[in-house]
Specification:
With 296 residues, this protein is α/β, with parallel strands linked by helices. It has a domain of 190 residues: Zn-dependent exopeptidases (Aminopeptidase, 3-Layer(aba) Sandwich). It is built from 6 helices and 7 strands. α5 links the parallel β5 and β6. α5 crosses α6. The C terminus is likely disordered. The structure holds zinc ion. The site of zinc ion (ZN) has 4 residues, from loops.
Amino acid sequence: MPFLVLEPRTSAVPVVGHVPHASTAIPIGVREEILLDDEALALELVRLTDWHTDDLFEWLRDRGATMFVNQLSRLVFDPERFADDAQEPMAAVGQGAIYTRTTSGELLRELTAEQRARRMAELFVPYQAALSELVGPILARAGRCTLIDCHSFATLPLPSETDQDPDRPDICIGTDPFHTPAALADGLERAFRAEGWRVRRDSPFSGCLVPLDRYRRDRRVASVMIEVRRGLYCDESTGKRLPAFAGVRAAIERAVAASRLLDWAPLGVELAAGDRDDSARDVGGSRRGREDEGSG
Ligand SMILES: [Zn+2]
């Protein structure tokens, strides 16, 4: 399986932390099709890997969230892209679901349509299905599910990135107009600013992952992306952690906890005391918008 599901360490909350880009693992069969020597491949991994994001957000399990962690490098397949290149803007630079170009535009691999389809069927499709299968029972149990899409980004824009403005924030909050309640993103922005960081919304990256079968259909799925600038916590020429790592991780945890992201009710389902247990909820009952509570 190309992913790991890590259970919460305390009583569960309806939150899934998704970590798509932390791995550097490339199976031998996939390595063979990559047209780069070891040095060039190492450079590409340094640039593209969201280093240590599995660890940076690992505390989510201590607060009741389930983690869904990709075990393969995004150079094998990228679960954050649309399956169909025609729908995927990054396919224009050879970085759709299966990358064909490097960050500097060189040829990474050449696959026939048939080979690509096989790779998608073996990895991308089961990955998306497993994420859906994780979210489904949470919705059935809690009536809602919040996805936190956990990423990091390079301090200097990569040549392949759409946004080339060298002035980048420390934290980027990615949102979706359907799945990210404004108050949720506002609260998160405020909490990260309170930690002394420069925060921007949907810049330099926008959007957030939602399981495809719920995408733009099911408002009970809330989602938000948190992108951390890598220079805060790692040496961007090697991917190695800086001494600041633990402090950055603690600050992210404080900010997310302060933002109330972990007890968010996307449908405005009233959160009663003791709501964090696993009992089934009647989501057909009356609701009042959490947005009405003036949380921002
Ligand atoms: Zn990422």
